[in-house]
TrEMBL record, chain A:
PROSITE patterns, alphabetized: RNASE_3_2 (PS50142)
Name this polypeptide is given: Large ribosomal subunit protein mL44
Source organism of the structure: Saxophila tyrrhenica
Domain RNase III: 61-149
Compartment(s): Mitochondrion
Lineage of producing organism: Eukaryota, Fungi, Dikarya, Ascomycota, Pezizomycotina
Top-rank lineage group of the source organism: Eukaryota
Presence of keyword Repeat: no
Compositionally skewed regions (Basic and acidic residues) per UniProt: 23-39
Record family assignment: Belongs to the ribonuclease III family. Mitochondrion-specific ribosomal protein mL44 subfamily.
Listed Polar residues bias regions: 222-235
Region called Disordered, residue ranges: 23-47, 222-273
GO molecular function terms noted in the UniProt entry: double-stranded RNA binding; ribonuclease III activity; structural constituent of ribosome
A GO cellular-component term linked to this record: ribosome
UniProtKB/TrEMBL annotation, chain B:
One GO term of the biological process aspect: mitochondrial translation
GO terms, molecular function: ribonuclease III activity; structural constituent of ribosome
Gene3D superfamilies: Ribonuclease III domain
Limits of the RNase III domain: 54-201
Protein name in the entry: RNase III domain-containing protein
Organism: Saxophila tyrrhenica
Signal peptide feature range: none
A Pfam match: Ribonucleas_3_3
Gene Ontology cellular-component terms listed: mitochondrial large ribosomal subunit
InterPro entries assigned to the protein according to its UniProt record, in alphabetical order: Ribosomal_mL57, RNase_III_dom, RNase_III_sf
Length: 434, 204
């Protein structure tokens, strides 16, 4: 039984009983299974989540696999592992954390390249916001709900493997008891490790530095581990123990030898498994979806991961024009025209009505020479002018090249992209800074 | 917009100058790319690093937002894309690295084993951040000579470290990868990331 499970992925011998009587009747189905195969002993051991052997017996899990049309190459056991959050069991091999990290990066890469090639002139803050809207935790959490994946009330080895398992906590947005601040703003809820000097929420963080320090959405990293506790010391060659020492890894002469760093310098020292930190449903949902993307990549390759991204992420529509918020659009437009060498923008009244009434409407256009850059309607001349400038700026930033010219970098990667000829994509110099 | 005459006193620090020599920039690109251009030998005039990107994009990839207050363009978006590529390649490289016994599951029976999941336990937030630490990236960048050609404006020209030189150098390396992805495709960018950034950092 074990060998079949391991090597055949979905085990054909284990019959999955469809639980017609509804949820909460796991005992009945397990009794039925036991009659079928008396040699099976449920392995509880020191598990916090159902064993991977249970995965083949779960109707919910198989139904999820079928509903999402996941490839056969993805075994049910890995799908079950994707549903277990690290807050349930932090030991390696039991949770979805590494799969989630890989999946998050893949989804982030595919989304970033799609956004950048489709909208080359998008400003950086909008790019961050759009990235979050497509593959951020809220979007992925909504996706999890749309897929019909339910979460357990509390994790344990007896729950159905087809449920999302997490140890819940009060979300950081909630107000702290007895305080006026939210929990996430409380001083002890410090995030450590990204290297920023001051990580409090209201300390100024520029847009550019977020690219190196923060995550793919420009937010402070929350997933980094806290400082090692007193009883674990890093390996002597771990980077954090000797921050100034360098390994000589580059020289002009590429044939010269260099001492390679020890093979596992990048792994933390012997880890201790204290009570794992609890997580919110939104975070755990996002981790699950990301882990699924990672698992698809590992088992079924890049085409499966890209297909997943196209079907589930890119199928969502985001009205990008609503993400813009201009403080001084007229000034920005003027600087933009100066930079690009257009004639200075001039606002002209196109049409108006009700000037002396309570509700006038002025339609104003912003022109560069004889070309209309943008048009806006407002209740006053000034409002019309400002709206027109904002519309012009949106039109500039939301420019999209013709569809036949757009190619995503990942299209020419790997085996699938071998024969394709790459078309150079537009590289924009950046938004106008005023 | 700039005032024609400066009214405020000049800061008490050495005058900061950046490279404006195209040849110095090209030499840096040659050093950085190495031989990755061999893969597109038929399509480019020059397989050295300088032939991989357009002239304007070469300058843009080295221009930080602090340079001239962002008036002449900056490399934020290129760095964003480049970091996404480097992140993916780091994870994939970690999958191939040998695992420490401490990181593996204790008893083999409990955990589902599959050939596709080999090396998965190496991918952790800790290892990712240890490898892509900005100080280490900055050291690799300095070895390539990127610090001599990057166009930026430090807060204190006599104390570059406290002005964030490490971040700017890491940012610039990411942006070169991003520029490669936009102009030459993902395969070239991924290959450059693996061979020219991750390999010096210790990942094969």
């Amino acid at each position: 039984m074990t060998r079949d499970e391991i090597h055949d992925g979905i085990c054909r011998r284990g019959v999955i009983t469809l639980n017609i009587s509804g949820e909460g009747k796991e005992d009945a189905s397990r009794v039925e299974e036991k009659r079928r195969d008396d040699s099976y002993q449920p392995f509880t051991g020191n598990l916090n989540a159902p064993s991977h052997r249970e995965a083949l017996r779960s109707a919910k899990l198989s139904a999820l696999h079928a509903r999402l049309q996941l490839p056969i190459k993805l075994p049910l056991q890995t799908l079950a592992r994707c549903l277990v959050d690290p807050s349930v069991d932090p030991r390696p091999g039991y949770n979805n954390e590494p799969l989630s990290i890989l999946g998050q990066e893949l989804l982030g890469y595919y989304t970033a390249e799609w956004l950048m090639t489709k909208y080359p002139r998008l400003p950086m803050p909008i790019l961050f916001a759009a990235q979050y809207a497509y593959v951020g935790s809220s979007a992925l959490s909504a996706m999890r709900a749309e897929w019909g994946v339910e979460a357990v009330a509390a994790p344990g080895p007896e729950v159905d493997p087809g449920l999302l398992q997490l140890k819940r906590q009060i979300p950081g947005n909630a107000m702290a008891e007895g305080e006026q601040m939210r929990i996430k703003h409380m001083p002890q809820a410090r995030r450590v490790g990204s290297g920023r000097r001051n990580e409090e929420h209201n300390y100024r963080r520029g847009m550019s530095s977020r690219i190196v320090y923060d995550d793919q959405f420009g937010d402070l990293q929350t997933t980094l581990p806290v400082s090692t506790s007193d009883d674990t010391s890093p390996y002597p060659s771990a980077p954090i123990s000797r921050p100034d020492e360098t390994t000589p890894f580059f020289s002009q002469d590429t044939s010269s030898e260099h001492r390679p760093p020890p093979s596992d310098w990048y792994l933390p020292a012997q880890p201790t498994y204290e009570d794992p930190t609890a997580t919110t449903l939104e975070a755990a949902s996002a981790t699950f979806v990301r882990a699924l993307a990672g698992a698809l990549y590992l088992h079924a390759g890049t085409p499966a991961a890209k297909h997943f991204h196209t079907e589930h992420v890119l199928s969502r529509h985001l009205p990008l024009h609503t993400l813009f918020n201009f403080a001084h659009p007229t000034r920005d437009l003027s600087r933009l025209c100066a930079r690009e060498g257009f004639e200075p923008p001039v606002a002209r009244l196109i049409s108006e009505t009700g000037r002396l009434s309570r509700t006038p409407v002025f339609v104003v256009g912003v022109f560069s020479g004889n070309d209309k850059l943008g048009e806006g309607a407002g209740a006053s001349l000034n409002e019309g002018r400002v709206r027109a400038a904002a519309a012009a700026l949106r039109a500039w930033y939301l420019y999209s090249p013709p569809a036949e010219e757009i190619m995503r970098p990942s299209e020419v990667e790997g085996k699938a992209g071998e024969g394709k000829k790459w078309k150079s994509q537009i590289v924009d110099i950046g938004e106008v800074i005023t | 917009m700039r005032m024609p005459e400066r009214i405020r006193p000049e800061p008490k620090q050495p005058v900061w100058r950046v490279n404006d020599d195209a040849e110095a920039m090209d030499e840096m690109y040659d050093r950085f790319m190495g031989r990755v251009g061999e893969a597109v030998k038929g399509e480019v005039k020059d397989t050295r690093g300088r032939g991989m990107l357009d002239e304007e994009v070469k300058w843009l990839a080295l221009t930080h937002k602090s340079f001239d207050h962002g008036r002449r363009g900056f490399n934020d978006k290129l760095a964003f894309l480049g970091k996404r590529i480097v992140d993916v390649q780091t994870s994939l490289a970690l999958l191939n690295m040998p695992s420490s016994p401490a990181a593996l599951p204790a008893s083999q029976d409990d955990v589902f084993q599959h050939a596709a999941l080999e090396g998965l336990e190496n991918v952790t937030a800790f290892s990712k951040n240890a490898i892509l630490d900005k100080t280490r990236l900055a050291k690799v960048a300095t070895a390539y000579g990127i610090n001599r050609v990057v166009r930026w404006k430090p807060r204190k020209s006599d104390n570059l470290k406290s002005s964030g030189e490490d971040v700017v150098l890491a940012h610039t390396m990411y942006s070169i990868i991003g520029a490669l992805a936009m102009q030459r495709g993902g395969e070239m960018a991924a290959k450059t990331a693996r061979e020219r950034i991750l390999k010096p950092l210790g990942l094969r």
